[in-house]
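Known limitations

Files may contain more than one protein. Parsers should not assume a single record per file. Below, a two-record file is shown to illustrate correct handling: read the sequence, read the token line, then continue until end of file.
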Amino acid sequence: MKLFYSDTFELPLPEGHRFPMAKYGRLRERVLAAAWSGACQLELPPAATDTELLQVHCPEYLRRVTQGELSVLEQKRIGFPWSEKMVERCRRSTGASIVASQAALPDRVAVNMAGGTHHAMPDAGSGYCVFNDVAVAARVLQGQWSVERVLFIDLDVHQGNGTAAVTAADPTLFSFSMHGDNNFPFRKTPSDLDVALPDGTSDDDYLAALQTALSK
């Protein structure tokens, strides 16, 4: 099984910053220490190209991200300051989802260990998400690998509003998000299927809700 990592491009964040960027490096260390790691192939992904990113994101937004022209408010909404390393890291994370998806076609499974940037809209970033890696990967698969339909199963505690925006009114992309009802984003973009769970949901209730949703 192929696993793709981009933690070597982690961002230098101000002291006391809330987002634990080091978690991705620690995840790779745990994987390497696992007894089953010998069955895995860890690879550094390529950076997503402009051509790939433009299949989801607006040209003007991509230009301003690349050139460092995001406003202070836009950077605040994303959650970390702009830097060239930030752009490279986000391109690599998106590239990881692209090559993991491509590897999964013949291998049936592959992993991006630092993806899931589901709050990124076509024209804006939010919630530590600059580019929507899973949406870009889906578009690349459709354009280059003759994939017809893609299902997104999003089990983050936060609703996948960016992915929902990308997939809206597109019958070839289906977005399913199961998330905490009282959690970010507080203005949610409707997915094709949303399951909002109350605070304190038990493991059994969670798994039952997931099974019911998947059966649909």
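...continuing to the second record:
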Amino acid sequence: MAQEEVKESHKGKIISIILFIILLISLLFLYAKYVGIKGLIVKEYRIESNILTSNFSGIKIVHFSDLIYKSTVDKNDVKELISRINELKPDIVVFTGDLVNKNKKYKNEDIEFLEEQLLNIEATIGKYAIYGDADYSFEDYKTIMEKAKFNILNNSYDEIFYKNNDSMFIVGLPSSSKEEVKFEEAFSFYKEDEKRKYIIVLAHDGKTIKLLDDTTYEVDLILGGHSLNGSVVVPYYGGVFLDDLADKYYQEHYSKGITDIYISSGIGTNKYPYRIFNKPSINLYRLKAQS
């Protein structure tokens, strides 16, 4: 009789543990689907460089990526995004691609809404954008970004002057999965025998960044996206939902010699509409010249 009671007690504990695990998994699923995808945060970074001149010291750059509108991102999320960006009073705003969800269809009212909202982004120096892999199949991308006063960089660069004749460069590369990356065109300003100026590179995905690794161009700051840092991040393991285009650049930050690489965790979601330990975010970089 006593043995039967012990067996029943043991069986009851096992059932309790199984039910607890099921409940925990269910709660994590609900959190990832309904809570983790909301609540935009700002990640702040201080970037120091001895290449950067005192003229640009204190410049604020806001970086956002992978809006993927109409994934887990609705109109209210976009409005909140624009408001948060403007609250930071950036000097430069950069968007590193994937404005839309390639599996969705967009109406004229969606196009007008994005144009209107992105136009409201304020930057004292300028706004820059590149193509993400999803943007190539969205024929209105170029129109939207240009109407929103973004300078689209595609195998090209812009020289930024601020306060005086001192300058720095910002380079935009295409997504290597969709278009040839032409480094000679993008870096046509680059002269190895002259004193180098500060260089920022916008590259949508890790595969494109890896191609840059194999060149001889020295750059100071690379800003990218695509991977969403894996969407679901497991402590001590890293991102879970990654594809080949993310390659080896999918975590928040990498440091390679003089180069800092920052990968945005993005705003929306891709194939899997979940986020855990990885809230939608924008990055704020404060540049500082090393004395």
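Parsers that stop after the first record will miss the second one. For reference, the second record is described as follows. The mean pLDDT is 93.
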